[in-house]
Structures are given as structure tokens and as C-alpha cells.
């Protein structure tokens, strides 16, 4: 099966008992056993639930993995992967990560003695140089958030493999439609399925996918032991969203490109960050490892924080909100919204300026979106 077909069918055969074409919402906490210890693969819904299993099999198929796990949020998925660490272990992480990931690292795991080094993972020498003998994980996002930097997946997978270090990619921004890190040699992929995978801004969810059944078994242990699992209704909504993932990503990528080109030519815009643009530092690499460039476009408005504030409050269609990846267009001001947990001096160091705006370009008509941006920038 090819991608769009998998999105609609993988893990979701018609219900054997009724013929229901949609996977039913198995809203049941427990399941009757034939004899003590003899169940149908579902002893208890924290451990396994049939609606969740359909979602897990579908995301595994889409990423080309052997095991998929659904968690109650992207953060729960990230936490689940970190559970394998012990005090004294070290993680090499990208410096331009989702703000909540960085908060989890620094405020929840450091106090248990796990150490983190942040590097620009687009710089392969710096990434390899940050590895210590205690390093257990290399953690990256590509494209990164919000600066849309592109990291070479194949090269980072090689750094990890040669040293016996697990490599983890947060594939939330790209989705498996645009990029499949496991195919490039990564060990684990995580997702906030809240974003593009769900795609309709109506559910919080997370997923983990791995090609290695042993790693999958270890992580399934933590999924069950810690218990951050999604309910069956959320799994149903995610399955429904996934069915149109390919259609949505094509349109997001088309609209993203048009918005990036418009902003690049605008006199009030200082810089645009979008890997689809010819002059973007990540363009060639993105062309090689991605099947499109997606719907996130960041840019710096001339005039600093005040100009950014005016632009952010001047749109009619782009809604001012955290999150991304839904069908509707959203606008975020990272310095005051999503990335406040990154200390100001660190924001300056990594180039996350106060005038930076991040757009999640939705699937509306492109003419309406461009008109909205024309109006917002006129007010700056
Ligand atoms: C939103 C997001 C997360 C966190 O996911 P939640 O579903 O909000 O818990 C992690 N990584 C990235 C890249 C995200 O955009």
C-alpha cells in the first residue's frame, strides 16, 4: 500500500463483528476474559484498547515502523521516550526545539541527574563533538521550531549508529507525508499528533514509532507503567484526521510556499524562514530529504517587538493562537507566546528575535490568506 491508502486503511479493517467501516470507539475500560489470564489481546484499556491499537498500527505504517504507540499528548510521548534514561545519562539536543520539550528536559529531567547539551544540529561537527561517553540520546527536530532549520537526518543517524546512541526525531512539523526519519536510519520518531496528524485542532495527542521491535517493547512498557494514554474517542478523532493527511499536507505545502514568496518580497519584512525558498540555507538538504516543505512559515517584521505586536493583532483570518497544523491558519509570536520558557539571552543566541512571527498556514484559499497578510502588514 502507498501512503494515502495506508492513511485510510492501515490498522483499520472493517469491524469483524458488525462490518462497521469506521473503527468503533471502544469506550470500555476492561474486557472479559475466557479463563483467568486468557484475553483477546486487551486485558485493560491502559495496556491496550482496540481503537487505540488501530491508531497505533496506522501511524506505524505511515512512518514505516514496526511499532507505534499512542500517548495522551506530544509531551507524554516525549516523556515516555525519556523514561529509559538514568541519572548520569546525557542527551545531545537541538538548540531550536519546541519550547515544551526544552522545559521538560530542564525542569523535570535535570533534577534527576540527566544532563542535556544543546547544539545547532544543522552543524554535524558540533553535533558529533557534543557527544560524551554518557550520551544515550541525540534528539532533533527538523524543520526546527520556529526557525525552520533543516538537520541532515541521514548524517545524524550515522553519528548515533556509529557510537551506539539512540537517535530520536520529533517529526511533528513534517509528518510522515513529507519526511520519514526511520527510513534515514533514525531509531525513534515522536509526534505531537495534536498538530498536522490530527489536523483539525480538536484533540491533544502524541505518538511514538520505532522500527526496532525491542525498543518498541521497552517503550510500550513505559506507556503502560506510567499510563499517559489517550482515550478511545481521541484515538477515533485522530484516525479520522489521518485519513486526509496527504490531501491536507499537499495544500499546506502549496499555501506555505505562496505565503513565503509573498513575505520574501514585502518591504516591511526583514527575513523569511521557509525551506522551500531558493535562498534558504536548508533548501538543498530539504529538497533531498523531504517530499515537500509544509505549512509553517516564520518571518521577522522590521521594527522589533512593537511591529510584531501590530502585525500579530492586525489579521482577520490568521487567528492569534498557540499550536499549529490545523486546517485553519494561525499566527504565533514565539517570544511572548510559545517560547517564553527559553531564557531571553538564549533566544538572542539562537536567533529567535523579538520581531519573529510564526505562521501556521492553513488550507483556506490562498488569495484570502494573502489579502489578510497584506492588510496586517499595512498596519505595521
Ligand atoms: C506541540 C508540539 C509538541 C508538544 O505536543 P502536545 O501535543 O502539545 O503535548 C512537541 N513537539 C512539537 C514540535 C510540537 O509542535
Polypeptide structure, described:
- The protein has 380 residues and is α/β, with parallel strands linked by helices.
- The chain folds into two domains: 3-242, Aspartate Aminotransferase, domain 2 (3-Layer(aba) Sandwich), CATH 3.40.640; 245-378, Aspartate Aminotransferase, domain 1, CATH 3.90.1150.10.
- The protein is 38% helix and 15% strand.
- Helix 4 (99-109) links the parallel strand 2 and strand 3.
- Helix 1 runs antiparallel to helix 2, helix 2 packs parallel to helix 9 and helix 3 (74-82) crosses helix 4.
- The radius of gyration is 21 Å and the shape is globular.
- Pyridoxal-5'-phosphate is lined by residues 73-75, 98, 100-101, 141, 145, 170, 172-173, 192, 194-195, 204, 206.
- Pyridoxal-5'-phosphate binds next to helix 3 and helix 4.
Question: How does the SSE layout of this entry go?
Answer:
Elements: H1 3-9, H2 50-63, E1 67-71, H3 74-82, E2 90-94, H4 99-109, E3 115-119, H5 124-129, E4 135-141, H6 153-163, E5 166-170, H7 175-178, E6 188-192, E7 206-210, H8 213-226, H9 232-242, H10 245-264, E8 269-273, H11 283-289, E9 296-301, H12 304-313, E10 319-320, E11 330-332, H13 344-350, E12 356-360, H14 366-378
Parallel strand pairs: 2-3, 2-4, 4-5, 5-6, 10-11
Antiparallel strand pairs: 1-7, 6-7, 8-9, 9-12, 11-12
Helix pairs in contact: 1-2, 2-9, 3-4
The protein binds pyridoxal-5'-phosphate (PLP).
Residues 73-75, 98, 100-101, 141, 145, 170, 172-173, 192, 194-195, 204, 206 line the site of pyridoxal-5'-phosphate.
